[in-house]
Amino acid sequence: MAHDHNHHHHHHHNIDDSSIGKLWISIGLNLMITIAEFVGGILSNSLALLSDAVHNLNDTLSLVISLVARKISRKGVNEDKTFGYKRAEIIGAFINLITLVIVALFLIKEGAERFFEPQTIDGFTMFWVAIVGLFGNFITAALLFKESKDNLNLKSAYIHILSDGLSSVGVIIGGWLILKYEWYIVDTILTVGIGLYILWHSYHMLRETIDILMESTPGEIEISELKKHIQSIDKVCGVHHIHVWRLDEKQILLECHVVILKNDLTEMETIKQQIKKTLHDDFHITHSTLEFETEPCSAHHHEIEHAHAH
């Protein structure tokens, strides 16, 4: 088993190395966009541009968190962290999303206040700075696209960048409308829009992240279904005490008690292998701990054990 894990770890090594390099480039690019947009926002008095800059700064931080989490999660298993550091990336994503929600709420508040006191805005500066922002976002998104597909941490960073690109497009259109028609209200609408968009995205990812941290049963697994599958295996009388949870987005773990007849104890190993195969093939459970017993524990006993376990 130990060999298996090492092999698995090695397999990811190359992917990680390239993604770390890409994260560094992305951080540099985003920092440049952020500075340009802050300066541009102050010079042009555009709240939408400033809100895009805050969004971008948050992106830069999100990339830094992703990078740190990525490096930590590659540390091996040790006696203190017997599951390794896989969850570092989930915690990274969680911190990112919380900061995003705070930023979004702040932007919506500021935008709403400006709605009642519209201000003059320099559309020219707003327009060109947003174009620079869009270009930088485009490069970063292209860099992270591949890695974001199967990693929640990098996906959270990628979504940040993508939503940034979209808000830059909004700011470009807004800048043009202000230049041409002096529709200053566009700036306010954009600011609130960017804020709402960030909130909507963060909410869904936050739920997924919290589910993993709370060790919830993965959404795609029905405990009753799982029970049926195990009980359909020859010589299994019953199964209880089922706990299924995620270590990170990829690995699903399970522990349960399996009841068999005393006479079948000699075949325990065969039964165990069949259960593990079913769990792996039908439910993608990579790590399972099965405790065998020859008589089910009574309901009362079950309650006490449950209290102890938690």
Briefly, what is this?
By secondary structure, the chain is mostly helical.
Q: How does the SSE layout of this entry go?
A:
Layout: H1 2-44, H2 47-73, H3 88-116, H4 123-148, H5 152-181, H6 185-213, H7 223-231, E1 238-246, E2 252-259, H8 268-283, E3 285-293, H9 299-309
Parallel strand pairs: 2-3
Antiparallel strand pairs: 1-2
The assigned structural class equals mainly alpha
Largest sheet: 3 strands, mixed
> What is the level-2 CATH architecture name of the largest domain?
Up-down Bundle
CATH class of the largest domain: Mainly Alpha
The oligomerization state is: single chain
**Total count of helical runs of at least 4 residues:** 9
Given as residue ranges, the uncertain stretches (5+ residues, pLDDT < 50) are 1-15, 299-310
Query: How confident overall, as mean pLDDT?
Result: 84
Distance between the termini: 28 Å
Helical content, roughly? Answer: over 70%
CATH topology of the largest domain: Alpha-lytic protease prodomain-like
Largest sheet, spatial ordering of strands = 1-2-3
Number of separate strands: 3
Assigned CATH superfamily of the largest domain: Cation efflux protein transmembrane domain
How large is the share of residues in beta strands? 5-15%
Gyration radius, rounded:
26 Å
H-E order: HHHHHHHEEHEH
